[in-house]
Amino acid sequence: MNALVLPAIGQPLAWQNNYPDPVPVRGEVVVEVKAAALNSRDVWISKGQYAGIKLPCILGSDGAGLLDSRPVLLNPSMKWGKNARFQGPEYEILGMPRNGTFAEQVAVPRRQVYAMPEHLSFEQAAALPLAGLTAWRTLVTRCRIRAGEKVFITGIGGGVALMAMQIALAMRATVWVSSGSVEKINRAINLGAAGGVNYKDPDWAKQLKSIAGGFDVVVDSGGGDGFANLPGICNPGARIGMYGGTAGKINGLSPQILFWKQISILGSTMGHSGEFGAMLRFVAQHRILPLVDGARPMSEAQRAFDWMDSGAQFGKVVLTLQ
Prior knowledge:
Layout: E1 3-5, E2 14-16, E3 28-37, H1 40-46, E4 62-67, E5 70-74, E6 77-78, E7 92-93, E8 105-109, E9 113-115, H2 122-126, H3 129-142, E10 150-153, H4 159-170, E11 174-179, H5 182-190, E12 195-198, H6 204-212, E13 215-220, E14 234-242, H7 255-261, E15 264-267, H8 273-286, E16 292-297, H9 301-310, E17 316-320
Parallel strand pairs: 10-11, 10-13, 11-12, 13-14, 14-15, 16-17
Antiparallel strand pairs: 1-2, 3-4, 3-8, 3-17, 4-5, 5-9, 6-7
Helix pairs in contact: 3-4, 3-8
């Protein structure tokens, strides 16, 4: 089969046309991949900035395709464990160490395969699983979002942030966003956000509090120095959900504001199969369309990786094999 292989750290992705077909073991099936989406995880692995890297490997956590001629998508969250509150020691994400979706075929446990929502294309379906599951667990399971609440989402433009915005809007919340790009903020407003601020402005938190007031839920993937501003824009009893830390360690956070406002800081990573199924049903019910920044042939994947690494995308970058 054709496959996109990462041979070693620091080496370019290799498009191989003679890679061995996957051989399923008991309980597994082979899915014919039609589209696969990139995640930050794939970029970090290719740079050697991820724990437990085992190479060579076929990356790719997100995928949609055909199983017995039926359109399906894959749940990339594997071996969650017995406790729904947190993942167990054997937890892994599809696409390293197990070969992932950047290939014509992928072998996965049958329980990881779900019927594709009928209103989605293969490209849209491929953009959904990891981002949708991460956003769902952060907003619904951890932060327990409710209709009518005000939500602030940082770093709009990434796949999880956009899915969080779409889910929150479908739940009848009011959503505000931040970005370092005015264009991305305006695009989010066109999709239903109430407004946004540019986090490159030194007084962005003051601006936001002035125009929007306080927030009941905050969704953040950055951490870093900017995180210390988040409790100040929170209402009493607010929940801050964190699913990433791209900006690094948090400095300057005052504990007094946390306990006086009764604010909860909630870490969240991916999710279990029950959450994945609930997310899919919600997406189908509300006919949510995951945003695809662009679709490129998988043989041109290095250009797609470079584009995603630049941070310029708005939505998911998708590779196709149709």
